[in-house]
Design goal:
41% of the residues lie in helices and 22% in strands. It has 330 residues and is of the alpha+beta class. The termini are far apart.
Length: 330
C-alpha cells in the first residue's frame, strides 16, 4: 500500500503501472513509423498529447486512492487524527529538542573532511538540563534538520501516521538545493538516516521513543517519496515545546552549520541566558577540538546570523565578554 511499481517490456510497447491495475500503453516512434510510413511524426504527436491527458488522469486517481486509504486507516484506528500545529507563512516548526541540543550537530561537511558519519548506540546527546536524549544510529547534522523541517512543513494539516507524499524536488527547493544527481543522493541518504535513527527523548516531561520518520519509500519511477511520521511525535509539539524558524533566514545561512545551529537555538530561546564558549561548543555538537579555533568560528557564525536576521528585519545583538560569556539580545 502506497508503493508504486514499474514494469518495462521489450519490443514496441512500453507498459507502466501505478497503483492497482492502472495500465497505460503507447507505441514507440519506430513501430509507428513502420506501420504508418510518412505519417509517423504526426502520429507521435497525437500519442504525446493523449499521453499527457492520461498521465494527468493517473495522477488524479493516485491522489484519490491515497486519500481513500488514509480515510480508511483513520476509520479503522490505524492513523491518528492528530496533526502538527499551524504556523505562519514563511515559518517552519521544530521541537525544542531539535534546537537546544546536539541532536542535529553543527558538523562540517563530511565530503570536505573525507570521513564517514559515526554510528553510535544508545549515546547520550548533549542538551540543556530539561532535555534528555539518547540516540542510536548514524549521527545527524544541520543538513538532516533541513530535510526534517521540509518534511514536517509538507505534513502540516495532514493526520500523522498516514502517508505524506513529498516530491523530492520540492524538498530540495525548500533547502535551496540544486536539481542534480548529488542533491537527490544526499536527500535519500538523509531520509534513510532520519528513518533509521532510534531516539529516546524526554523534553520537559514529554516522552517520545521511536524514529523521526517511521518509514521512507520511493517508487521506481518518479521522484515522490511516501513518508510516514510517528503520531507520537506530536507530543514534542505541545504548547511551549516547539519554536518557529524564519525560513529565509535559515536558508541564507546555507553552508554554515554553526550559524544554523545558533539561529535555531536563539529562535527557541527569546530570552536566553549567557553561555560560556565551552558550553556553546558542547551544546552544538561541534567537532572542533581546539577551543580557540572554535571561538573564531563562533564569532564568524554570530556575524552571519546577525546579517541574515537584519536582512529580514530582525534585531540580533551579541557580545563575548572578558569572562568568555556569550550574551545575546534580540
Amino acid at each position: 500500500m502506497g508503493v508504486w511499481e514499474c514494469h518495462g517490456q521489450s519490443g514496441d510497447t512500453n507498459t507502466v503501472s501505478s497503483g492497482p491495475a492502472i495500465t497505460y500503453q503507447t507505441r514507440t516512434r519506430a513501430s509507428t513509423k513502420a506501420a504508418n510510413g510518412d505519417r509517423a511524426w504526426s502520429g507521435s504527436l497525437t500519442m504525446t498529447s493523449r499521453s499527457i491527458d492520461e498521465a494527468l488522469a493517473r495522477i488524479r486517481v493516485q491522489v484519490e486512492l491515497t486519500q481513500i486509504r488514509q480515510e480508511v486507516q483513520i476509520a479503522e484506528g490505524q492513523v491518528s487524527q492528530v496533526s502538527l500545529p499551524g504556523v505562519n507563512q514563511g515559518r517552519k516548526l521544530a521541537p525544542h529538542v531539535a534546537l537546544r541540543t546536539a541532536l542535529f550537530a553543527a558538523m562540517a561537511d563530511r565530503r570536505k573532511k573525507g570521513g564517514a558519519r559515526e554510528f553510535v548506540r544508545d549515546q547520550q546527546i548533549a542538551g540543556l538540563s530539561n532535555m534528555r536524549v539518547r540516540f542510536t544510529g548514524q549521527l545527524l547534522d544541520q543538513q538532516d534538520l533541513d530535510v526534517l523541517l521540509a518534511v514536517l512543513d509538507t505534513a502540516r494539516g495532514q493526520p500523522l501516521g498516514g502517508v505524506v507524499v513529498a516530491p523530492a524536488r520540492r524538498l530540495l527547493l525548500a533547502q535551496r538545493k540544486g536539481d542534480d544527481g548529488r542533491s537527490y543522493a544526499e536527500l535519500e541518504a538523509s531520509l534513510k538516516r532520519l528513518a533509521g535513527a532510534v531516539l529516546d527523548i524526554d523534553q520537559g516531561g514529554a516522552r517520545f521513543i521511536g524514529s523521526l520518520l517511521s518509514s521512507a519509500k520511493r517508487p521506481c519511477a518518479g521522484d515522490a517519496w511516501s513518508l510516514r511520521i510517528d503520531p507520537d511525535l506530536v507530543k514534542l509539539f505541545a504548547p511551549g515545546g516547539f519554536a518557529s524558524l524564519h525560513s529565509e533566514v535559515r536558508a541564507d545561512l546555507h553552508g554554515k552549520p554553526l550559524a544554523k545551529w545558533l539561529h535555531g537555538y536563539y529562535s527557541s530561546q527569546p530570552e536566553a541566558h549567557a553561555l560560556r564558549i565551552e558550553t556553546v561548543k558542547w551544546l552544538s555538537g561541534s567537532q572542533t577540538k581546539d577551543l580557540r579555533s572554535f571561538k573564531q568560528t563562533l564569532v564568524r557564525s554570530l556575524r552571519s546570523v546577525t546579517k541574515a536576521r537584519r536582512d529580514h528585519g530582525q534585531d540580533f545583538f551579541w557580545e563575548i565578554d572578558a569572562a568568555g560569556l556569550l550574551k545575546v539580545r534580540q
